[in-house]
Design a protein that fits this description.
The complex is a heterodimer.
Chain A: H1 3-13, H2 19-37, E1 51-58, E2 67-73, H3 74-81, H4 89-101, H5 113-122, E3 125-130, E4 134-140
Antiparallel strand pairs in A: 1-2, 1-4, 3-4
Chain B: E1 6-13, E2 19-24, H1 25-49, H2 57-71, E3 77-81, E4 85-91
Antiparallel strand pairs in B: 1-2, 1-4, 3-4
The chains are: A alpha+beta, B alpha+beta.
């Protein structure tokens, strides 16, 4: 059993994620495994979602009345994350330190693709209301 | 996913003429490919020279990572609008 699978099952056992979420993570893991061993079939989604959507709608108190509609292919996010390998080690240390100063204890080097999958699964449908000015909705489709 | 072929760029500003561009990205790839092929031996040489101390292997990863991003661009859609202006970028 791979380390990632064990981690997912442990999260289910600790009731950190539901069985459905675990199933999605496992299928995402299987897809990424098969993608690494052989190129994935064109157009086939590598997990439960194909796009990350970010919508910003103006609220009643909005001054700018700005609307934003962003659709990012999930595969592009994964491909972009691989560029993190090019960030110099000393810069990663600075990022970690800056986050720590803001009260976020995070090790940049330890972020794995599985962590990102997990984050996106939990982001499945998130709505943030910014003081009645803007409504930001982030979801996967 | 496949290589992106078209990019739509629409810009609309209050009091100005609306710009609607369809950019054939395939032409850019045709121009860019020989440059990348020319750069490949230099990247390989730089990777060998800096293998022990320096970027080394990371330089070899640059090309597959770049293609990975380019190949997955189709479907990207960015649209920002307010009462005075609207900007749209869509990659097919």
């Amino acid at each position: 059993m791979s380390e990632e699978r064990r981690k997912i099952l442990e999260m289910v056992a600790q009731e950190k994620i539901s069985v459905d979420e675990a199933e999605r993570l496992l299928s995402a893991l299987e897809s990424s495994d098969s993608e690494e061993s052989s190129e994935a079939a064109p157009g086939s989604p590598s997990s439960g979602f194909r796009y990350l959507r970010i919508l910003v709608e103006p609220g009643p108190g909005s001054d700018t009345k700005e609307r934003v509609n962003i659709r990012v292919p999930a595969k592009l996010i994964r491909a972009g994350l691989k560029w993190a390998a090019f960030i110099p080690k000393n810069a990663r240390g600075q990022v970690d330190q800056a986050l720590r100063d803001k009260g976020i204890d995070m090790d940049f080097d330890r972020i794995t693709p599985l962590d990102i999958e997990e984050l996106l699964v939990h982001l499945n449908d998130l709505t943030v209301d910014v003081e009645g000015k803007e409504k930001i909705r982030i979801f996967c489709e | 996913m496949s290589i992106p072929t078209w990019m739509a760029l629409h810009v609309q500003r209050e009091g100005r003429k609306r710009v609607r561009l369809w950019i054939p990205l395939i032409l850019i790839w045709i121009l860019l490919l020989p440059l990348l092929l020319l750069a490949a031996p230099f990247a390989l040489l730089a990777a060998v020279i800096t293998w022990k101390r320096g970027p080394g292997f990371s330089l070899l990863r640059f090309f597959p990572l770049l293609f990975g991003v380019i190949w997955n661009l189709p479907g990207l859609h960015v649209e920002v609008e307010n009462p005075r202006e609207r900007i749209l970028i869509h990659i097919k």
